[in-house]
Amino acid sequence: MSTTTETAQQFDASTGNWRAGVLGGIGGALVMGALVLAMNAATLEVAIPSLYTLAPPASAGLGLVVHVSHGAVLGVVFAGLVGAFDLDSLGGQVGLGAAWGAVTWVVLAALVMPVWLDVVGSPANPPLPNFAIPSLLWHVVYGLVLGGVYALVEDAV
Which value, in Å, is the radius of gyration of the alpha carbons in the chain? Predict the structure, then answer.
């Protein structure tokens, strides 16, 4: 007769610091927004505000408000992931941030955004899928800043 013992791994996403996620998400979205403006301003001026029918006319300000809002919300999700994976090191959090940025690029920028822009009739509708390499760079930078800021402020907020 044999006995088998199984240990269930439990993930607790509630242990992440959502405030640090918001701050990291805002910081990451601001840095990413600066890159977008420098490399392809129409994305921030037309495509992003078009998600909510706020463009045309082009408006970098409205685009940045929408983009930073998205960044903050995605930062809260990131905080949940940090808690779920029990990451407490700078390297782990920055690495997860980079991976999270790549995931948001694939799912949100390359797949969801083109469909959403088509549904609202945006003049800035990219092809589906939209696996644009500059956008991958922007999203990974978002994630790196998110993870770094999260790690720096996690214990302070």
Answer: 18
Could you tell me the residue ranges of all domains in the chain? 15-153
**11 by DSSP, 3-state: which?**
coil
Q: Which two tokens stand for residue 68?
A: 């930073």
Span 40-95, pLDDT tens digits: 999 999 999 999 999 889 999 999 999 999 999 999 999 999 999 999 999 999 99
Which amino acid belongs to residue 47? Answer: A
Q: Residue for token digits 């302070």? A: 156
pLDDT in tens, 87-129: 999 999 999 999 999 999 999 999 999 999 999 998 888 999 9
Measure the CA angle with vertex 104, ends 13 and 20; round to 5°.
45
Question: How far is Cα 140 from Cα 65, in angstroms, rounded to an integer?
Answer: 20
